[in-house]
Amino acid sequence: MALSTVLTVLYVAIYTRVAQADNVAAPINVPFNLTHFFGYDGPWQAIPVLVSDPQQLIHLYPGGTYATCIPSVNVGNYESNYTSENFPTKAGIFDLALAQPALHGSSQNYYIVGPANGGTIGPVDGSLNGGRPSNLTGEGLMISDSLSWGGIPTVSNVSISAIYNATYTLHNGTTYPLDVGFVSLGASNNQFFGDSDGTILYTANMVPLNLSATGKIPSNAWGMHIGSVYPIVKPSLILGGYDRSRVIGDVSTWSTQIVTTSDMIINLLDVSIGVETGAPPFPSFSKSGLLMDAGQVVDTLTVRPNPTVPYLYLPGDSCKAITSQLPVTYIQSLDLYSWNVTSPDYQNIVSSPSYLAFTFQVHESSDNMTIKVPFALLNLTLTPPLMDDPTQYFPCKSYSPQGPNSQSGNEYHLGRAFLQAAFIGMNWNQDIWWMAQAPGPYRLPVPDTITILNSTTELQPGGNSSAWAASWSNILKPLCIHGESVSSNCASSDTGLSTSAKAGIGIGAAFGALILLASIFFLFQHRKKQRCLAGKGTSTRQELDGKSTYFGRQSPKSTAVSPGQISELPVEERSELGSSELFSSDQTTQTTHTT
Ligand SMILES: *[C@@H]1O[C@H](CO)[C@@H](O)[C@H](O)[C@H]1NC(C)=O
Ligand SMILES: *[C@@H]1O[C@H](CO)[C@@H](O)[C@H](O)[C@H]1NC(C)=O
Ligand SMILES: *[C@@H]1O[C@H](CO)[C@@H](O)[C@H](O)[C@H]1NC(C)=O
Ligand SMILES: *[C@@H]1O[C@H](CO)[C@@H](O)[C@H](O)[C@H]1NC(C)=O
Ligand SMILES: *[C@@H]1O[C@H](CO)[C@@H](O)[C@H](O)[C@H]1NC(C)=O
Ligand SMILES: *[C@@H]1O[C@H](CO)[C@@H](O)[C@H](O)[C@H]1NC(C)=O
Ligand SMILES: *[C@@H]1O[C@H](CO)[C@@H](O)[C@H](O)[C@H]1NC(C)=O
Ligand SMILES: *[C@@H]1O[C@H](CO)[C@@H](O)[C@H](O)[C@H]1NC(C)=O
Ligand SMILES: *[C@@H]1O[C@H](CO)[C@@H](O)[C@H](O)[C@H]1NC(C)=O
Ligand SMILES: *[C@@H]1O[C@H](CO)[C@@H](O)[C@H](O)[C@H]1NC(C)=O
Ligand SMILES: *[C@@H]1O[C@H](CO)[C@@H](O)[C@H](O)[C@H]1NC(C)=O
Ligand SMILES: CC(=O)N[C@H]1CO[C@H](CO)[C@@H](O)[C@@H]1O
After folding, report:
1. Where would one find coiled-coil regions in this protein (predicted)?
2. In this structure, how many other beta carbons lie within 10 angstroms of the beta carbon of residue 456?
3. For residue 22, what pLDDT is reported?
4. Strand 68-73 relative to strand 56-62: parallel, antiparallel, unpaired?
5. What is the secondary structure of 529-594 as a DSSP string?
């Protein structure tokens, strides 16, 4: 009897242990809206968020800490800036009258937080200091209400700033309202709102923290690559994990405590232009030392990768140095640059593997790492109210931070334009964050979701720098040199045979010998096309490229579709288009069998 009790207890103990190990929650993939894109200077991708109960669909850019910032109407007695006349957004507006009753405090679907329930003025840009560079000013009321990020478990009493009056001011003084808000990626702790005497009235939840505390995700952490709309690079945001195929080469690891808590701040050492393979579309193969201020090359600049702002906010002299290499024209009213789309150089720059490279310090060492942003991703579009007609622009904006030294606010910003090509991740539990090169459209064949634990401090990259070149190789075509002048794409001399044969093959660590053999065979069979007559210095690059392990599938549609058209496409067409452009495990398996 006693023995059997002991055994039972032992069994239960062992069973529970095993069950717990099995029960470690899986990371959650946050869906984006893959059919509709947003912004007057993007297009950018956003997350469909369901706010309150009954649920209201509002699209928000992922980014920021603490409060989720949502454009709102009927915020109690506050006069809202958002009316149908001045607010043509597709993203949605939160109507607090429907989340009722609101400020008057009877039965509640949401709760007013802040001193004496009166609310406080909250940050408009998700606490990332993005207000100043993007000239965003305004007011929001701190509330708490339920949020569900595109179908993932609902969290109650989430910290929200209901933005009722916020406008961007352009360089020429013209204003327009905040069109898309920001969904907070959390913090290491919840937000507490107290009375003036220090009594805590309300606790407002952080979504990743609450999901991890309730065992729905493995940790209070996330990994993100926002991707791009044109060319199509699908976005990825994972709670409690990251997609390893989004992480290429060295991963830089920094504390969030460098300046103040919860900051993503890193040292930028240099900005350069270069070309991965083929002839350069600029006067020289590469040019570094473009990080300049006050006429001097700058050794180090404190920057914040910031998904709440759109552009590259750098010293004015850096923008001048970079754009002196490019066929662009300054747009006075916006302090941005429009591409000269009639210039052959423009076509060559945005369609070849040429890039703007950012060299960063890898923390805790003197090493550095480089993130390459292909110019193809910096061919963005201005639309009304920023420009009367859609205009292709280069997103460098002159900026000078005004925060006191070594305090938050003293940093430059690398916004969504940069983050299209960079992976960022956060482990709030360790107060560390990561940044790495992200790939182009033809990345590792299978999204490789890796769990981040509360104890995780290092991320594993899914590939090395040759994986980066390969991930772009079927969209960005190397240029040839015929005689002295740069000519059109060498790739156009490819025959139909190679195009149809070049279905996707990729090698991930997990795939091992089988696919390796298959692709060696594949290489042997099909590597007979010399891509281009290399200019001087390109031969080594050519060889490297030939060894690369990816062969993307040529998409006949990809060059014919503009973002405007994409956004009008119904779901089916768009997803068909997406799958024809991206690897999937099915395609890879098929290819392996047929080759
Ligand atoms: C994408 O946005 C459109 C327009 O707001 C909306 O109708 C659609 O339901 C959204 N899709 C998803 C998956 O949320
Ligand atoms: C809206 O904000 C602006 C400054 O950002 C301020 O001047 C204006 O008074 C505010 N309007 C209302 C109704 O609060
Ligand atoms: C998570 O949210 C639920 C619902 O609001 C709340 O009851 C719970 O205390 C939260 N847990 C933590 C650890 O924040
Ligand atoms: C912000 O707006 C002011 C005009 O109100 C303008 O002078 C300034 O250049 C703008 N700053 C940025 C970063 O656009
Ligand atoms: C949300 O917060 C309010 C006020 O603190 C509390 O009464 C309510 O129980 C909370 N809701 C949940 C689901 O925890
Ligand atoms: C991870 O850390 C969060 C706090 O950051 C905590 O609430 C959660 O319980 C932890 N999860 C595990 C599995 O230890
Ligand atoms: C744009 O490029 C074309 C072709 O090189 C050139 O003729 C034209 O002057 C350029 N336009 C501007 C505004 O620089
Ligand atoms: C980056 O590191 C390499 C190798 O250590 C070095 O040659 C290069 O000068 C460094 N670049 C910058 C901008 O510090
Ligand atoms: C400021 O620039 C915007 C965008 O180019 C333009 O629509 C607006 O008319 C300009 N305002 C003034 C006062 O020039
Ligand atoms: C990059 O990775 C590929 C595939 O794993 C490997 O064949 C190649 O040697 C690596 N290149 C470098 C420079 O490490
Ligand atoms: C630049 O971007 C626009 C809009 O996405 C696209 O239509 C155009 O084809 C791109 N230009 C090139 C040369 O790829
Ligand atoms: C109430 C308020 O501040 N309204 C502002 C809303 O935004 C427009 C610009 O689109 C301003 O002109 C209004 O003053």
Report:
1. none
2. 20
3. 52
4. unpaired
5. -------TT-HHHHHHHHH-S-BPPP-TTGGG--HHHHHHS-HHHHHHHHHHHS--HHHHHHHHHH
Task: Collect all residues with Cβ–Cβ distance below 8 Å to 268 and sequence separation of at least 6.
Answer: 291, 300, 301, 302, 303, 358, 359, 360, 412, 414
State how beta strands 68-73 and 155-169 pair.
Answer: parallel
Residues 6+ apart with CB under 8 A from 119: 76, 103, 112, 113, 141, 142, 143
Give the tens place of pLDDT for each residue, 397-406. 999 987 555 5
The helix/strand/coil state of 274 is strand
| 3-state SS class at 496 | helix
Say which residue the tokens 């000239």 belong to: 135
CA distance 560 to 86: 33
Q: Whose CA is nearest to atom 7 of ligand 3?
A: 156
Residue 354 in tokens: 């040429």
**In this predicted structure, what is the pLDDT of residue 54?**
87
Ligand 12 pocket test, pick from 81, 93, 124, 163 with the greatest ligand atom count within 8 Å of Cβ, gives 81
Within 10 angstroms of residue 150's Cβ, the number of other Cβ atoms is 18
pTM, 2 dp: 0.82
User: In this structure, what token pair is assigned to residue 394?
Assistant: 């280069």
